[in-house]
């Protein structure tokens, strides 16, 4: 059986996915909303890599959550069942309570499928109260950003 999603590389971090038939509408292209699922899944895998354990366990241990404050897309091409693509994750601006994850979806020829910007905000776990990005997480985001560099436009 083929794995439908896995970490393809860690620097820059990228997740490779295969489009499932159920991800698509009757016309055979990926539902727009499914792209948000792809981006959130890539973010969770990225957090696990950064924090060295499952993302939800790490956030529980450090007492914070990361709900989305904003999510934007620029779609460049459609995807169909069995298409493979990668989502590369870079860190953009790091603010006091929120940060940007800049994601680029590319097909296996290296052509853009989408450009996305996910802006999570840190909240106290179990509350709807914004908090400063925890130091351990801020340091991990900054170290990755410094090592990885800024994405190309």
From TrEMBL:
Keywords: Hydrolase. This is Thioesterase. Gene3D superfamilies: Hotdog Thioesterase. InterPro entries: 4-hydroxybenzoyl-CoA_TE, HotDog_dom_sf. It comes from Candidimonas nitroreducens. CDD domains: 4HBT. The lineage of its organism: Bacteria, Pseudomonadati, Pseudomonadota, Betaproteobacteria, Burkholderiales. GO terms for molecular function: fatty acyl-CoA hydrolase activity. It comes from the Bacteria. Coiled coil: none annotated.
